[in-house]
Amino acid sequence: MELLIDGLKKAIEMILSGDQEVYAITWLTLKVCLISILISTLIGLPFGIFLGLTRFKGRRILLLFINIGMGLPPVVAGLWITMLLWRSGPLGDLSLLYSPTAIVMAQILVSLPIVTSLTCTAFQQISDKMLLQIKALGATKFQTFIILIKQLKIAILAAIMAGFGRVIAEVGAAMMVGGNILGDTRILTTTIVMEVSKGNFDIALALSFILLSVALLITAALTFLQQRKRIS
Amino acid sequence: MNPLIQLKNITFKAQNKTILDIPEFQINAGEFLGIMGPNGAGKSTLLKVVSFLEQQTSGEILYLGQVIPIGNAPIELRRKFSIALQQSLLLDGTVFHNIAIGLTLRKISKAVINEKVEYWMELFGISHLAKKNALYLSGGEAQRVNLARAMIVEPEILFLDEPFSALDFPTKIKLMEDFKGIIETAQTTAVYVSHDLMEINYLTNRLAIIVNGEVKQSGPTPRVLEHPNSSTSSFLNEWKKFYPLAR
């Protein structure tokens, strides 16, 4: 208990003292996580809607792989991205390994299946009759898409929150593809692992409180968007 | 007779089964056409095909004498029609928003939308529900919203697929009375699908009986109901045991 309180005090001290290193790590964490979830949403949302509303040969198999992807171990994602970006790998020429971009790529790999699958599940529940009714109201395909997104706002934001939860908590892949380089690829989760391995539990705890605060703030904002003004 | 829609040699097949087989059929301007038949006869499919929501397997549909290519009805044509289904299928939002949606999709100005929504809410007696969430309405209220939503776009043809069937009897009677008055005042051409003789007898002035995907008899409603032919008598006589035909 004493250790927890000390950790909390240390976290407040780090924030108030304007520790540039902590700020830089927190900012990078926020940046890579938000970029990852934004890209996952931009790809996963339309893809999930497509999978939820259409039926085609091979759809079930595709969904099976996406659902398996929801439980993809981060180290496996990290390994794949490392092999992809390794000097002799297909994208080796881009020299992206051990860069924030590599972390973003790994985080997309772990969050994209979550956003896609949960979006697909939500849209799959829309009845054919509802789709017919929207068409009968005189909606174009694009207008139908907008109406459905508005109607399923709660489920869509839940999918985004679940994806965000995965990327903010992710450490294995970020360590593997980022390398935990100070001032370059060091993010909160990788720093916590490093401090624990050094036996600095107070710093690790302090950083964990900062990480929790960041996660809490983003999730709170998304929850506010999700739950605001429902007319009864 | 001034046909708005004509069907020529229409078939609709699903999973190698013929659901509709209609050599000739038409909807005339200003009429209140009833389509009646037993469950699974193809009534709702006919409604979807004739309103261009589903595409026929073969045959021609003509709108004002012009052939509309299969599966290629332009959005402008679809927007001339309106549909109210058995389930009200309202959206999560206010009653006002739900009634306005057809006009919003047609990019009508806000001032006109406000004016029209007020008018149709008053006509259907639901002005007091304007700010309520449409998902929390009673069955009767939801169906009034559904009908107002269909009528507000002032359709050339209003298609109705058993909109009163899920309502309790007193609610159904009251809503049908109100609705008939509104349709007559607006002089809207309407096509009403039902398997309920009482509703058909009360609302429609022309009737088509459809059995196994084929139109077996059509004509003025009283005449068809009073003189069913050999193909429709077994279905109609069952109903007539329960409802008198007096209008």
UniProtKB/TrEMBL annotation, chain A:
The answer to keyword Transmembrane applying to this record is yes
According to its UniProt record, where is this protein mainly located?
Answer: membrane
Q: Which residues cross the membrane?
A: 24-49, 61-86, 98-123, 144-169, 203-225
- PANTHER family (alphabetical): PERMEASE COMPONENT OF TUNGSTATE ABC TRANSPORTER
- Classification via CDD domains: TM_PBP2 (cd06261)
Please give the name of this protein: Tungstate uptake system permease protein TupB
Q: Which family does it belong to?
A: Belongs to the binding-protein-dependent transport system permease family.
The cellular location(s) given in this protein's UniProt record come to:
Cell membrane; Membrane
**Residues of the ABC transmembrane type-1 domain:** 26-222
In terms of NCBIfam families, this protein maps to: ABC_perm1 (NF038017)
Topology of the protein relative to the lipid bilayer: Multi-pass membrane protein
Q: Which UniProt keywords apply?
A: Membrane, Transmembrane, Transmembrane helix, Transport
Lineage runs: Bacteria, Bacillati, Bacillota, Bacilli, Bacillales
Which InterPro entries does the UniProt record give? ABC_perm_TupB-like, MetI-like, MetI-like_sf
UniProtKB/TrEMBL annotation, chain B:
> ABC transporter domain location, by residue?
5-237
UniProt entry tagged with the keyword Flavoprotein: no
GO-annotated molecular function = ATP binding
Instruction: List the InterPro entries hit by this protein, alphabetically.
Output: AAA+_ATPase, ABC_SmlMolc_Importer, ABC_transporter-like_ATP-bd, ABC_transporter-like_CS, P-loop_NTPase
Pfam families xref list: ABC_tran
Tagged with keyword Nucleotide-binding = yes
Instruction: Provide this UniProt record's keywords sorted from A to Z.
Output: ATP-binding, Nucleotide-binding, Transport
Protein known as: Sulfate/thiosulfate import ATP-binding protein CysA
Query: What's the source species for this entry?
Result: Neobacillus rhizosphaerae
Q: Which taxonomic lineage does the organism of this UniProt entry have?
A: Bacteria, Bacillati, Bacillota, Bacilli, Bacillales
